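#struct-help
A.M.: can someone run this one for me? Single chain, 152 residues.
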Amino acid sequence: MDIEIRKAELTDIDLLMKWRIRVLHEVFSIPDNQSMEDLEQANRLYYKSMLKTGGHIACFAYVKEKIVGCGGICLYQEMPSPDNISGQCAYLMNIYTCPQFRGYSVGKTVVQWLVNQAVQRNITKIYLETSKAGRKLYEKTGFIDMRDMMKL
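D.P.: on it. Structure tokens below:
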């Protein structure tokens, strides 16, 4: 299967929002009839700001001119440390493949493209959160579990 990755631009904001809402519905099991107006507004503002400044890179996966998946990576700065002297980090997110295209390396292609975007910017510390279903994909692309992490 020939998968083409295309970087999303600010002019793609409506398309980005359509896919972001689709991902949120699936990942968070949000019922279709639940209002997401506030969340959609917050995400739209995020995209408008971060795509403009380069703090977020989003992409779509195409097969024969049809979008079959998407993904994004947030680029940010943390305090420098021995394992990350530059302090530059990335957070991989919003990786999604349409159900009928799962198992054809769409997600893997999206992840590799986004990781490459970070690496081109000399970012080597890349985080992500995963679902049980996505774990194998990330392990196959080189991600490992982080110990000693907590969340409040």
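A.M.: thanks! The chain has one domain: 4-140.
D.P.: also worth noting: The beta strands are 4-7, 56-63, 66-77, 88-97, 125-128.
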